[in-house]
Write a structure and sequence with these properties.
Elements: H1 2-5, H2 13-58
Length: 65
């Protein structure tokens, strides 16, 4: 993972680890937001299709059969 390999100015092991974990967490949040926003977009698209199908079904006239 590139986030883990980023350069840090810290020399003390604890601070290096802390910095790497923080940077990795930031990258994971960005990655997660990208996935979630894509899933939300697909959900809204599916809901729009369902709505249009419902409207089309309501506008059809029923036959005696």
């Amino acid at each position: 993972m590139r986030a883990w390999e980023e350069h840090t100015d810290h020399h003390e092991s604890f601070h290096v680890l802390y910095n790497k974990l923080c940077v990795t967490a930031q990258h994971l949040k960005k990655w997660s937001n990208g996935i979630c926003s894509d899933a939300k977009m697909k959900l809204h698209m599916a809901l729009e299709v369902i709505l249009r199908l419902d409207v089309a079904q309501e506008n059809r006239s029923l036959s005696l059969a």
